[in-house]
Amino acid sequence: MKDSLLSHFRKTISLGREKEEYVLSKFNLSKIKKRDFLLESNTTCQYLSYVRKGCLRIYNIDDYLLESNVYFAVDDWWAVDLKSYIECSPARFNIQALTDCEILAIHKLNFNQLLNDVPELERWFRILLQNALIASENRINYKMSFTAEQRYLEFIKKYPTLESQISQKHVASYLGITAEYLSKIKAKRSKRKS
Amino acid sequence: MKDSLLSHFRKTISLGREKEEYVLSKFNLSKIKKRDFLLESNTTCQYLSYVRKGCLRIYNIDDYLLESNVYFAVDDWWAVDLKSYIECSPARFNIQALTDCEILAIHKLNFNQLLNDVPELERWFRILLQNALIASENRINYKMSFTAEQRYLEFIKKYPTLESQISQKHVASYLGITAEYLSKIKAKRSKRKS
DNA sequence: CGTCTATTTGAATGTACTCAAAAGCGGTGG
DNA sequence: CCACCGCTTTTGAGTACATTCAAATAGACG
Question: What pLDDT sits at residue A193?
Answer without folding.
Answer: 65
